[in-house]
Amino acid sequence: MANIYVIEVPKWGLTMEEGTLVKWLVSVDESFHKGQELCEIETSKIINVLEASSDGVMCRFIAKIGETLPVGAVLAVCADQPVSEEEVDTWIKEQNITSDLFCDTEIDINITQFGKDVELNSVQSADIHSSVTSDHSKSEYIPEILKGACNADINLATPHALKKAAQWGIDLRKVSPCGKRISVADLENAIRNEGGYVIPFGYPLTRKAFSGSCGDDTDVPATPVARRLAKKLGVNLLDCRRTAKSSRVCKADVEAAAYQLNIGQSTESSTIPLCTESSDHSYFTTEPLSAVRKTIASRLQISKQNAPHYRLTIELNMEALLNLKDKLNVTYPDINITVNDILVKSVSQALIKVPELNIQFDEKQQLIRRFVHADVAIAVALPAGLFTPVLRSADKKSITEIASELHQLFNRTRAGNLQPEEYQGGTFCISNLGMYGIQQFDAIINPPQCAILAVGTIEPRVVVNENNEAIIKEMMTVSLSCDHRVIDGATGAIFLQNLKKFVEMPELMLA
Predict the structure, then answer these.
(1) Residues 346-378: pLDDT tens digits?
(2) Any idea where the Peripheral subunit-binding (PSBD) domain is (predicted)?
(3) Distance (Å, whole) CA 249 – CA 499
(4) Is 4-105 a domain of CATH 2.70.70.10?
């Protein structure tokens, strides 16, 4: 007898609460082996792959691409050997997955009608596959292009899909399956792609307001996502059903309560419009924030609001550093040493000289952590967002070691293969926009770090030498942002003095 089981959203790191399904790497009915990559999941930091813990067969996808799910939510149903759709359905019913495991899976439904998106409240995954109400004029719109005689071939579609296709009058030959057979999800995708919509069974088209509770809901068990949403919407958790695992409130429960409370709506009975109008949608598109972008936005907003930034600026003569770079590249032709590599070394040495900047600040506990070695983070801009891989103990490494390790770190960052220990922590950050021709800019501190160096471009400038002569030198402007709660202005100035000394006389780093 086959062993049927589920795969869930894993917990990668102590702070991980949720993940977004980016891509399935296997298909339904496809066999996989232990260690094979099954899907890509985006966390608040990186995109990682979930590997199979044993050999098996992918039976049914539960989560959909783009869904953000809490840790432990069901992603898919698998088995150790091929099984039929009926066996999977029976197992799901026996395990009571509909009311237990699926309840933490929260899906935001976007209904598309005639090319326009209409947002409805979230519903639970179990509702997605429920039958549609008989009032087709309100609950669904099936595009004419999909309509036709339903082919009742069991090899062409799953039993559920055959039933739905017959109900909706869809010609299965006009639907492309994601797996070996057409599923209900394939039907829904085809409907949306052709400009139609389907409203899940039981979704109310009208609603009336009722007054909410005022009691303390602190002890009401709820998922982290649901608790944050309830706080944002002003919903008391006492007014919510508890349909998630362990009788907890989930996101769908909060949204249902908000819907019944008419939060943000008129207190009179209102009807949900199936089509919205605006002035002109042809000039823009919309897209949701990714998990990475949400984290960046949240952390930098908190930093800007909570940390009193002050900024110090200084000019650096780069000619000695550029000469050193050229000599090192001649001596070590296999290592492409850059200005950034030597700058990381200079910053690490300055941090050891001025350890008051080589710190982290725990705002919650009001503690300063002082570090023996300089763990330097370097900002890397990618289409998905800003990442800050950390070079550990940079002060103990040679310039060639720094160049080699940074090259490997940057490659893993671009590939999305960073491990948590490679981007967490750090005692200081460098953000370099010089390659874009930016002369000077101010950067926002990345907590729990307390300082960040903004690096501008290298360019020829007229300067006055010790003989009061105007000469041209290769110069660069850097700006230091510090958290005034833990770093005084004079301390920041001393750090920049030491940095200037190491940059303009790099031989001192060899002492």
Answers:
(1) 999 999 999 999 999 998 899 999 999 999 999
(2) 221-258
(3) 53
(4) no
Q: Which of 339, 297, 301 is nearest to 430 (CA)?
A: 339
Q: Each residue of 433-457: pLDDT tens digit?
A: 999 999 999 999 999 999 999 999 9
What is the residue whose two structure tokens read 């770093």?
Answer: 487
pTM for the whole structure = 0.54
Q: Which tokens hold the place of 173?
A: 């030959």
Question: Could you tell me which of 482, 496, 366, 484 has the C-alpha nearest to residue 427?
Answer: 482
3-class DSSP state of 64: coil
Q: Let me know if 444 is exposed, middle or buried by CB neighbors in 10 A (0-12, 13-18, 19+).
A: middle
What is residue 38's DSSP assignment? Answer: E
Which residues are identified as catalytic?
A: 484
Record the tokens describing residue 10, joined without a space: 């894993």
Contact 387, 477 (CB under 8 A): no
Other residues' Cβ atoms within 10 Å of the Cβ of residue 211? 8
Q: What pLDDT was estimated at residue 354?
A: 97
Q: Kindly list the distances between the CA atom of residue 153 and the CA atoms of 61, 159, 178, 184, 295, in Å, as whole numbers in the listed order.
A: 22, 9, 17, 15, 47
CATH fold of the domain at 292-510: Chloramphenicol Acetyltransferase (3.30.559)
pLDDT of residue 212: 64
Residue 330 confidence (pLDDT) above 50: yes
